[in-house]
Model the fold of this input.
Amino acid sequence: MSAVDLLNLVIAALLLAGVYAAMSVGMTIVYGVMKIVNLAHAGFLMLGAYFVYELYARFSIDPLVGVVLAFPVFFFIGLAVHWILIRRIPSSDQPTLTSLLLLFGLWLVLQNLGYLIWGNADRAILTPRTLYVLQIGPISFPAVRLIVFGAAVASIGGLELVLHKTWFGGAVRALMQNSDAGRIVGVNVEKTARIAFGVGIAFAGAAGGLLAMLYSFSPDFGGSFLLRAFVIIVLGGLESFAGVAIGALILALAETFSILVLPASYQPAIAFSLLVLALVVLPEGVAGLWNKRHRLA
Amino acid sequence: MGNRQDLNRLLEVANLELAYETVQVVWGVNLKVSRGQVVSIIGPNGAGKTTTLKALAGLIPVRKGRIIFDGQDVTSEPAHLRVRHHLCLVPEGRQLWARMTVEENLLMGAFSPPLRAKAHQNLNRIYELFPQLKERSKQACGTLSGGEQQMCAIGRGFMAEPLLLILDEPSLGLAPILVEQVFQMISRIAAEGVTILLAAQNANQALQVAQYGYVMEAGRVALEGVSDELRASDHVRRAYLGVSN
Ligand SMILES: Nc1ncnc2c1ncn2[C@@H]1O[C@H](COP(=O)(O)OP(=O)(O)OP(=O)(O)O)[C@@H](O)[C@H]1O
Ligand SMILES: [Mg+2]
Done:
């Protein structure tokens, strides 16, 4: 393999990692604050894809604008879902079977809702720029991937800013690490959890829209990405945002480079293998490697 | 009970009963803390000190009894609203956010909206009182030594402009020289006019810094009194100060 091929693969992996990270942060924030593994995340990824698709097909709204619109729309959907369902889950420091079953059930409901509305045909979002490729010297950048990467990085950057520069962000990070300490200083746990869930779903919807710009989709879209998101947040140590970025990069590199040695049809196995590997070798994720040395006495 | 005494009373706990699920661990505890005082609760492992203090902060629901703070009944008020009365807990085991910096931990102490406007002013006051925290301000709390962590935890409580600062085992697990430092810190805060309620297994130091003390055993108040008298009592001398006659 030539150096150019190698560079092209690395760039492809990097671009993929952006959208992988974007689709995982929503699960991370929900897990971190509520200790709930949001299996319904896949359902919201799927709804996000159709949301952006419908806006484009019916109203010719640019998919990128659709993704931006997905944030507020899915934020409010998230608030509603929290109000109707999630707040009834007994609070716990660990994922409970109740929450897993509830969210798995919600995923099935969303998926079947999708079949009801859109049938099982594959859809894709095709715009004039879908096939446009930027050529810089010997390296080629598919334009849509660059755009998706930019949007993903911008949204994660925005989230980081909120988490580190606002009182709400402080509350979120505090609850992720020690919720009783949060209550002592005046954090309203239920309210913060509700907003955090809204943010998590907003990211799911927007990430679904971004994925729909890259891949075709149907109502069971999301399942394979749920697995990937799962691998990423396990690699990332479940509640660390820096870990998510690293986990996304590891998975994207593994998947991208696997095409050199494995038939493409085996690609989903990469995520599974990484998951098993991560659980066995790095149960606290990549972030655990440096946290271990800084554990509180 | 004269009116003057009532005005002077900051905290009154009456007939407190607390339980984890179905297991009751605190039985009819009465406590009184007057403004400006330092009051200590001493007692062996599992006596119910932490449970009682958590209930004061609202972290554990009250099964029976009342908590009156600064003239208001706060018995069933949720934890996150109690800090608005300037009732602050510095919990057992510090409970800092390990991956946040010292400064972030301290600032979170002023999370409650009424406190935010003065957050930076209070932060500077803490840095003046405890310069060691300023040196460490950008460091993640998880990397601090035990003594520094305790200092940070107390500082975080101090950010809420406490009327009552509740300290649960502030010297637990610290080397003797650091224990000394932490108790100096407590004296300094008391000198600022903050009322302090302190729980500790280390009876000697706890009674030295306090004017009044309670001895808790098996979920009940076994003994109470002015700390000099408590220190002189046979029971305390034998069970807590390690004096054998
Ligand atoms: N989360 C919990 N669930 C069930 N029981 C608990 C829990 N925490 C404490 N207990 C029990 O409640 C009783 C009182 O414990 P508590 O922690 O209040 O004692 P303490 O006086 O603070 O002890 P120490 O000096 O060791 O800190 C003990 O018997 C303990 O086993
Ligand atoms: Mg205790």
